């Protein structure tokens, strides 16, 4: 009977979202930053939160963390109301901000120890956590360095260690790979996936679509403070009208031939720069064959050609009207 009760309790806990936001409204005077915004992040997932600058991402995160008040709506974290004084709940949360937030006067180890002490006051309990965090981000040989001597990639790793040393159940990563080298980027992404496999729920924001597609289980796209679309990367791609993009090298495409291309029913957009024709297509099985038939009929000489499926950036562009990096 006890085993059944334990199993039932564990199942109930698993159903409770790590983060539940319902009908959240936040205004700054006449400006509406969050417009009845909804968000549900399930325990154990890596959740991507995407939006152009000014979309409300940072406001939403700050409201979830009880760093901002809001006008109306509901926020729950692990089933509990999130308030500025719910310190037990806050101890279960880790934050890795976009801007590196460490003390230049302290060493790597001292920085991690300080931030860990905000959640774990007893040094005896904290010491092994600090050492584990140092090893986790690969800073063992730099533990006595001050931040000013670290490269950009190593600083990012230190930033992560400071946010995760206390072993939080929910971790917010805000642009953790900005301006780092590819090797450090891969190390950071692998580290996030390891944290997730160890049981942490992750909310991840990034301007790098390939990262989001690589590590996120589900992705929410927001703009103007509103929830626009939610799903896996493939589900989001299937929501939009855009299909493949076709690029064809040709040096002698006439204006008349370009006009013929644009008249094709599956063509959303066609541009030509004198060297390459790029065509954004609607979904279809014979787009490339039909396009080549028009070019051959026009007498255009064709060089290299490539076709690629829609990307998350295409999804973002179609849903928001702007590229994520804007």
TrEMBL record:
<dbReference type="GO" id="GO:0005524">
    <property type="term" value="F:ATP binding"/>
</dbReference>
<dbReference type="InterPro" id="IPR027417">
    <property type="entry name" value="P-loop_NTPase"/>
</dbReference>
<dbReference type="Pfam" id="PF00005">
    <property type="entry name" value="ABC_tran"/>
</dbReference>
<keyword id="KW-0547">Nucleotide-binding</keyword>
<keyword id="KW-0813">Transport</keyword>
<feature type="domain" description="ABC transporter">
    <location>
        <begin position="19"/>
        <end position="249"/>
    </location>
</feature>
<dbReference type="InterPro" id="IPR003593">
    <property type="entry name" value="AAA+_ATPase"/>
</dbReference>
<dbReference type="Pfam" id="PF13732">
    <property type="entry name" value="DrrA1-3_C"/>
</dbReference>
<dbReference type="InterPro" id="IPR003439">
    <property type="entry name" value="ABC_transporter-like_ATP-bd"/>
</dbReference>
<keyword id="KW-0067">ATP-binding</keyword>
<dbReference type="InterPro" id="IPR025302">
    <property type="entry name" value="DrrA1/2-like_C"/>
</dbReference>
<protein>
    <submittedName>
        <fullName>ABC transporter ATP-binding protein</fullName>
    </submittedName>
</protein>
<dbReference type="GO" id="GO:0016887">
    <property type="term" value="F:ATP hydrolysis activity"/>
</dbReference>
